[in-house]
Amino acid sequence: MAASAVLTKQTPEDFLKQIVSTRYGSIQLFCPDNKFSHWFNHESLKLIPEYLNSENNYYYTPNGFKNQIRSNAQVSVLNAFFADFDAEKQGYTVDQAYYYLIKSLDDFNLPQPTAVVNSGHGLHLYWSIDTVLVNSPIVRLLWQKVENTIIAKINSSSDIKADPQATSPAQLLRLPMTNNCKRDKVPVSIVEWNHNKYSLAFFQDELLPKRPRLKHRPKMSITVKAKARKTRLTKSSLDVARASDIETLVQLRHGEVEGKRELILFLYANHVAQFAEDYQDKVLNLNQQFKRPLTKREIDRKVLKYAKAHYYKLKNTTFIEWLDITTEEQHQLTTVISLTVKRERDKQRKHRRTAAKKQARDTKIQALYAEGLNKSEIAKRMHVSRPTVIKVLKS
Asked: What is the pLDDT of residues 11-38, one digit of tens each?
């Protein structure tokens, strides 16, 4: 497996310029051997070779960050999808893994990668995409869904598995044209470069399941009945309850949702579309409750573009974090609540049930006494102690 003549002369800077965009964020160079870390933007990218030597391991972030903080929440620009294969740990040589994976991509229903990198003891596959600015968590959520789908498609059919833990938008990968020095010094090199560039929309359309058409079902209003609260919510009732909670949240904030408008409408559309054919109209109606509504064009471009085709399963913690829902607000909601509020609510519910049972018992004891039964007879019939009967009758 030999690299082409063009690629052998490349530097780390050349590779990064073709894979990553640093105009809207910085990438991190990290050396775990000495805990060295440095950030590079568009202007300083050319300085990377000055920080490298042949004796250490070097990693970088394919995606860019704001504020020079490497965390998922700080990702500001998305540049590529990737898959990390530790071939030798799975009993394959790098050559065997390369030929097997490239030959099998059609079977995985995946496009040809932009680049294949020999990481020393495995492979990294890259699918470069047109630069995507992360102006909302919605974009990062969509990227993560596509990334997870790529890895799942590979691992469901391939004998050589991709690392399912190496799927974060803040992932570090080995920097090409450096060395893998974990066991012995092995070059990290580019073994294939196809110049393919895709779009996020392409992967969204090709890989993600389409939102199923609604089956005919009784019309459901966005109101959770008291009976529904007593039993575990079904998927349909959960969607109804979450949509209702979002409406309640907007009302609690009196439409003052600046900075959260796209997120609120996205989350609302995600759930309303599960039970309402006219979900787009409902989204527009909710938008009108904002102090500063979005335009229809903004809703189409920033909300419905992501919500109309796919269903996203989100945890309550994600809702609370994205929308900054306070504990006081959670007390007014049905399902979008933290574990702490849930436990508090369960404790109150248990207390009310216990009090109701005690009240019913006491009423029955008093009724039996009025019928002429003595205290011992009442205690035997009610399966309580005689002192309990005496206490109830005295109260």
From this structure: 777 788 888 877 788 999 999 998 899 9
- Phi, psi at 310, each rounded to 5°: -135, 155
CA-CA distance, 8 to 47, in Å (whole number)? 20
Quote the radius of gyration of the chain (alpha carbons, Å).
29
Contact (Cβ atoms closer than 8 angstroms) between residue 95 and residue 61: no
CB 335 within 8 A of CB 233: yes
As a whole number, mean pLDDT of residues 376-388 equals: 92
What is the C-alpha to C-alpha distance for residues 241 and 237, in angstroms, rounded to an integer? Answer: 6
Question: What residue segments make up the domains of the chain, in order of their start?
Answer: 5-207, 226-337, 341-394
CATH architecture label of 5-207: 2-Layer Sandwich (3.30)
pLDDT at res. 5: 37
Residues 81/194, Cβ–Cβ less than 8 Å: no
The continuous run of DSSP H or E covering 79 comes out as strand 75-85
Q: Is the pLDDT of residue 65 over 50?
A: yes
What's the angle, vertex CA 307, arms to CA 247 and CA 331, rounded to 5? 25
The amino acid sitting at 21 is S
131, 135, 136, 142: CA torsion to nearest 10: -10
What's the pTM value of the predicted model, to 2 decimals? 0.72
